[in-house]
Write a structure and sequence with these properties.
Structural class: alpha/beta
Distance between the termini: 70 Å
Strand content: 15-25%
Largest sheet: 8 strands, mixed
Shape: elongated
Length: 259
């Protein structure tokens, strides 16, 4: 029996959703990206998270979101406490199957985040995951499972990627104080760059703003960054090259106070 058949059986009794978590203050940017770029409808909100309806095609789209920090496949029910899930492990298995079957890389380890993580019920779930999926339990894990109760409903969820969506593949080199890529995306989105032909960042650092602009706005003909630290410029060049933008993005050693 395929995981999709199992998932459909589960969904007859339980709705599966995709949970998207974001940095505080970026809600308007997240909603704009969801609606304008992907046409995804919001079906619920909670704190710094929004929920959208699950489908395989939507799951693929979600992995391309740039304003979202983390994404999970989740399901909710008032009875989904650790004891219940321990006795109905097929619910957890169906969610894990969704993530693993739609992953672009293998998962080698797992972690369960839950109040009472040392309880017999949670330890039973950990043994089940380890034996069923041949994964090692680690604090820093690829497959992240959570079992929480934010209000009257229990939520069980699996992060859909080993790393947060905010961790970009172009990060070949980093520096202390570097801007979070989701914030860089948000800053650029406020600048109406779809109407621009050039872009200048006078404190370019490790190049995050430049790269986010280059990857999201193909209309930009000239993208330039200034920094007065050779180390920062070296780091930014590594990241720009990793992003495949070495032909489009220039960085220069300049001090903006030098007229």
């Amino acid at each position: 029996m395929t995981y999709l058949v199992k998932l459909n059986q589960l969904m007859k009794n339980q709705e599966i959703e995709i949970k998207l978590s974001y940095i505080h203050g970026l809600k308007s940017v997240v909603l704009s990206e969801l609606r304008e770029r992907f046409g995804l409808n919001i079906i619920g909100e909670y704190d710094e998270s929004v929920y959208i309806k699950f489908s395989e095609s939507v799951l693929a789209d979600v992995k391309r979101l740039r304003s979202v920090a983390r994404a999970y496949v989740v399901t909710h029910d008032s009875k989904f406490n650790p004891a219940y899930i321990s006795n109905h492990k097929s619910i957890l298995k169906a969610l894990i199957d969704v993530v693993i079957e739609n992953a672009s890389r293998d998962f080698n380890s797992f972690k369960i985040s839950c109040a009472g993580a040392d309880s017999p019920e949670v330890r039973e779930l950990a043994r089940y995951v380890q034996e069923t999926f041949s994964l090692a339990e680690k604090l820093e894990a690829d497959l992240k499972i959570h079992l929480i109760k934010p209000d009257d409903m229990w939520e069980i969820g699996i992060q859909i990627t080993p790393r947060p969506l905010s961790v970009r593949d172009y990060r070949a080199a980093d520096m202390s104080g570097a801007m979070d890529p989701t914030i860089a995306y948000a800053v650029n989105s406020f600048c109406r760059l779809e109407k621009a032909s050039s872009y200048l960042n006078v404190f370019s650092g490790s190049g995050t703003l430049l790269i986010e602009a280059g990857q999201c706005y193909k209309n930009l003909e000239k993208i330039i960054g200034f920094d007065n630290e050779k180390k920062h410029l070296s780091l930014s060049i590594q990241n720009i090259r990793q992003a495949g933008l070495i032909e489009r993005v220039q960085v220069k050693e300049e001090n903006i106070f030098n007229k």
